Amino acid sequence: MFYSLKNRLIVFFVVLLFVSFGTMSYLFFTESRSIIRSYIESSAFEKMDEYGSFVNMALVQIYDVSSIVFNSSTVKNWDNTLSDPALPAGEKMLANINLSQFLTQTTNNYSIVSSVTVYRQEGLWITADNQMMNDSSFKNEAWYDRFKTRGIQWVSAHKDPIELNRSKTFDVLSLLLPIGTFEPLQSKNMMKINVSSQFFLEPLSRIHLGEKGTIFLLDGQGDSVLGQHEYDSHPEAANQMEAIRNSTQQNGVIYLENEAGAKDIMVYKKLKLNNWLLVGIVPEVDLYGNLYKLRTSLLIFGSLLLVGAIAAAIWLSHGISKPLSRLASGMRYVQMGDFDGAENRIPADEKVRNEVSYVTATFRNMVSRLRYHIKTEFELKLLKQQAEYKALLMQINPHFLFNTLELLSSLAMQHRTQDTVKVIEALGKMMRFSLKISNDLTPLEEELKYVRHYASILQIRFADRLNLSLEEDELLRSCVIPKFILQPLIENAVKYSFKEQAEAKVIVRVRREDQRLILTVADNGTGITLDLYQQLRAESLTSHFEHILKTRSEQIGLRNVLARCQLYYGNLFDFEITPGELAGTSISLILPIQGGSLDV
Asked: What pLDDT shows up at residue 392?
């Protein structure tokens, strides 16, 4: 019925929240798709296309200059003159001057070219403005070696000594080509065409992706052509270069994860003329800046709608808020066990007017019945808990005894009489301790004696293959703990340490941390799986332990110990299972410190 307050509240909240969050979701996803498409496809690729056209135009002019020099008769006459030993030095000098004038004229015809220098294998270099010198130091340059040995024609931004002599301190980008042949190794002469790197950097610096994004010009090997050192801070982008070069796609978008764990967007475009790459890198958070602003606006809008919905709900539910408050207060008294206080908070209502009155009257009846049921249930649960604890305790002794009897049988067959006697003496002391079941608790000192007897049996069984150490705080010896909670853990630690290796190392440590007693057993075994740890943690949260009594799994000892501690301490007990200091498993039982003396 729609006139019911419950139905009206449900309809109002459904309609209001559906409209608000539906509007928010639609605006968010629609606007996000539009912004992503605008930034990545329109902005990035459009800017790269414009700059790519500029680079191709510049490269065409540089190759034109190289073609003029390569096919020039002046260069050929100069080479023939210097190669003829019969010609006098003056005629050779005249040929050098003619070549320099030719280079000056060629350089002046192309404004983008800073200089053209011709190098001769014998150590002579000639450039514009009648500059020439017999200086073979250029052969020691890295660019010369790469050109001669590997045929690499382009030199990234660098300082050129010849440019420095002409008072040009800027970095240059250079094209290297042989003269007279197309094979660098066979050429006696080569040309080096320098172009200021600022010629390419200046228009590139005006292109931005977002606020912090940058576009880089890379060569075929993925190195920065223009000396943009910011590219070194993106090693994750350099790892993608080989895949990009081998790809047939001319452009694309790749999402990367940087060293800080944040996402970067890399946009690339291949230049056809000389296999260069334009790579733009922008942080995802920068690119989505407008999306974050939109999200904030949507959150504010949604918050206003939610405030309005809450105000309307308060107005509609005012007629039942007071009775519900009393009912909630009564429930809190019931939660604390004060049934009288709960009945006082909920006065008797002779007439049932609506759903709230009906719930209140029903709750009063429930409180009176809970008195009897809780008392009965508590007594039954206590008896059951005591029976479960005794059953779990009795499960430990047979399990250990069978293992020890098997060891005695093996020692007897080997005629190791002294070891047999030692095992029997240690077993006798352990059995004498375990048969005293009048108390479920024992001082820590007695439990450690029991552990030492067990350790002596293990030492006889495994000899030098077992290294078991016990570290204890003598001030904690009088603390009281449940019986037999260390021996099963040590047994498991030894078992799993020998599972995949010849030697076992086990450390038993007893320490205090604030008001908690921490018992730790660490080994160098195979370690515990995440599934098993989650299963043990889930079992510790339940109060049903019948499956532990029936189980035949290899973790019976560990489960038994955890179950008994959980039964005795309840929420005061906790445990940790982590990778240990010995590279295996470290199991820590965290118990509340309890002192006193018991007759054990």
From this structure: 47
State the number of CA atoms in the 13 A half-sphere of 496 facing the CB. Answer: 25
Tokens of residue 98, six digits:
């003619």
- φ and ψ at 436, to 5 degrees? -85, 85
What the block records as the tokens of 55 is: 């680079």
Q: Give the model's pLDDT for residue 194.
A: 92
pLDDT bin (cut points 50, 70, 90) of residue 597 is very low
- Each residue's pLDDT tens digit, 435-475: 776 677 889 899 899 889 989 988 888 888 999 999 988 88
Contacts of 572 (CB under 8 A, 6+ apart): 591, 592
Residues 6+ apart with CB under 8 A from 305: 16, 19, 20
Tokens, residue 426: 């240690």
Nearest to 565 by CA among 448, 485, 489, 480: 485
Amino acid, single-letter form, for residue 285: V
Strands 251-257 and 214-218: unpaired
CB 569 within 8 A of CB 591: yes
3-class SS string, 193-252: EEEEHHHHHHHHHCCCECCCEEEEEECCCCCECCCCHHHHHCHHHHCCHHHHHHCCCCEE
CA gap 558, 486 in Å, rounded? 10
Neighbours of 540 (CB within 10 A): 15
The DSSP call for residue 471 is E
Over residues 61-89, the mean pLDDT reads 90
More confident residue, 386 or 415: 415
Give the mean model confidence (pLDDT) for residues 76-84. Answer: 89
Is pTM beyond 0.70 here? no
What Rg value do the Cα atoms of the chain yield, rounded? 43
**CA neighbours closer than 13 Å in the CB half-sphere of residue 546:** 2
Q: What is the pLDDT of residues 288-324, one digit of tens each?
A: 666 667 667 767 776 777 667 666 666 666 556 566 6
CA distance from start to end of the chain: 70
DSSP class of residue 259 equals T
Alpha carbon distance 448, 505 (integer Å): 18
